[in-house]
Amino acid sequence: MHILLFGGTGCVGTALDDVCAQAGVRLTAPGREQVDVTNQRQLQDCVRDTRANVVVDCTALVGINPCEQHPETAFLMHAVKTHWLLTASRDVGSAFVFTSSHAVFDGCSDQPYDETSPPRATSAYAASKLAGEQMTLALHPRGYVVRFPTLFGRRRNQALGFVDKMAVMLLQGKSPTVAADKIDSPTYALDAAGALLETLGQGTPGLYHLCNAGQTSYHGLICRLRDRLGLSQEIGAGKDADFPALAPKPLRTAMVSLRRPPLRRWEDALDDWIATDRTALQELAR
Q1: Which residues form the RmlD-like substrate binding domain (predicted)?
Q2: Fewest CB within a 10 Å sphere: which of 50, 100, 111, 156?
């Protein structure tokens, strides 16, 4: 298998690069200096010249607020660009993977969302991601849509996700307040990337939820993070409404999969991440 990856320095891209290296899978990941993903000709030429077995797009405009402030960029990144990629990959016979998010759900369900749960977008970010999902599934015969929850793990671009930021704050001796009413299935990016590679190997296109098993509140997640870091400061229990955004944020977005076996529990995955990346986190906290 040969994978062409766009967005190789983010959380999923970094993890996919790692698992491909371990599995002996060839991966090509052009950087921004090589391919401007907002340039249709550059992007499609790269797909057609590389002729990989699979094209994976991990590039995005991340976050509710940036997408609300620049909805045209959100739809360019998540819908228009997706059409460019799926068209070029379809033309050369490559499978195509669109990476999406639990944010496509409205967060009003008391039960975890599975692949049959109807999405309902409540923000420009979610609407643009949902548009990319629908195009991939409708227009590419070998199209995969993979939804991820909140992820943690190493990033080559040095950006910090929610869990990483909390780890750095805790290591700096701070006592953050975290939403106790926001429910998720926090997932180790390495586990998600391994599941993606396994799914591609099975060759059955469609929609997949890739997440560690179980669910917890953000507050519960960060309390376990604190404990596993060997720290003792108090973690304030707040509400998600205490951290307003420019559009409604889904409150309960835990996920499960009906299409593949469950991954390990999020608690075990978190412990593994801390054991693996503790030194790197301590460096960031200095």
Answers
A1: 1-275
A2: 111
